[in-house]
From TrEMBL:
Origin species: Kineococcus mangrovi
Keywords recorded for this protein, A-Z: Amino-acid transport, ATP-binding, Cell membrane, Membrane, Nucleotide-binding, Transport
TM ranges: none
Matching CDD domains: ABC_HisP_GlnQ
Protein name: Amino acid ABC transporter ATP-binding protein
Matching InterPro entries: AAA+_ATPase, ABC_ATPase_HisP-typ, ABC_transporter-like_ATP-bd, ABC_transporter-like_CS, MetN_ABC_transporter-like, P-loop_NTPase
Gene3D superfamilies given in the database record: P-loop containing nucleotide triphosphate hydrolases (3.40.50.300)
An MF annotation (GO) of this entry: ATP binding
One Pfam family, short name: ABC_tran
Length: 263
């Protein structure tokens, strides 16, 4: 795989994370260049969610470094020493990263439109009229222009997840993180969410996507990373990692995914 020029938007080096005495991430390296889509595949428990949470400081890493757009995540260097950032500074870093979860996590008491305008108004201070105008555009982009006034309970899982994507985009993030965004959906609703994600990818959104949708990864990813047991087992172009995996663990995992997909 040829490396794009320039500094990666996300650069992770030797990232370690422990929960108590259990080492969950054992030295993860990753580069994500601006405009790239990176898909993270791997069995349950391999550390995919933990790694995503480290990228946006929902977890604090025990060793290694992560940079997003040149800034160290959660840390600052002063006088040759590293200091942990204050919570307010961590919150500021996190604003620039959109995250979409398996469970859509919409505010149940707010309409689709209100869910999308909430953070831009409260956190970024965007004027109300402008936030509403942008939110309408975003809901249209995810195919929900006619659902702006509906509450989450009035929407299907696929529609709720598309609102969640619009809500994340409303903060104009530099980077979008997706953690198994379709795995809580009924099978017939998966396609509409993946279609929105394909469009985002085509528009040049930088995305890190944890997914079991092997076909999506094969078609959309610039880079596929296969994780198991807290390490990157294999990474590269989808044609290599999915089409012609080198490692036995990758082959076993893909065979199981294909089998489940056709079951
Ligand atoms: N907050 C936590 N406390 C203790 N263990 C955790 C916590 N979060 C995750 N783990 C453990 O870390 C490992 C990796 O979990 P996770 O990152 O969720 O994997 P994946 O997303 O690949 O399924 C699992 O063994 C899980 O039980
Ligand atoms: Mg997970």
């Amino acid at each position: 795989m040829s490396e794009p020029p320039g500094t990666p938007l996300v650069k992770a080096r030797n990232v370690h994370k422990n929960f108590g005495h259990v080492e969950v991430l054992k030295g993860i390296d990753l580069d994500v260049h601006a405009g790239q889509v990176v898909c993270l595949l791997g069995p349950s428990g391999s550390g995919k969610t933990t790694f995503l949470r480290c990228i946006n400081s929902l977890e604090r890493i025990d060793a290694g470094r992560i940079w997003v757009d040149g800034d160290l995540v959660g840390l600052a260097e002063r006088g040759g020493r590293l200091h942990r950032l204050k919570d307010t500074e961590i919150a500021r870093q996190r604003r620039d990263i959109g995250m979409v979860f398996q469970r859509f996590n919409l505010f149940p008491h707010l309409s689709a439109l209100e869910n999308v305008v909430e953070a831009p108004i409260r956190v970024r201070g965007v004027p109300k009229a402008e936030a509403h105008r942008r939110a309408h555009d975003l809901l249209e982009r995810v195919g929900l222009a006619d659902r702006a006034q509906n509450y989450p309970a009035q929407l299907s899982g696929g529609q709720q997840q598309r609102v969640a994507i619009a809500r994340a985009l409303a903060m104009q993030p530099k980077l979008m993180l997706f953690d198994e965004p379709t795995s809580a959906l009924d099978p017939e609703l998966v396609g509409e969410v993946l279609a929105v994600m394909r469009e985002l990818a085509a528009d040049g959104t930088t995305m890190v996507v944890v997914t079991h949708e092997v076909a999506f990864a094969r078609d959309v990813a610039d880079q596929v990373v296969f994780m198991d047991g807290g390490v990157v087992v294999e990474h590269g172009a989808p044609a290599d990692v999915i089409g012609n995996p080198r490692e036995e663990r990758t082959r076993t995992f893909l065979a199981r995914m294909l089998h489940e997909g056709s079951a």
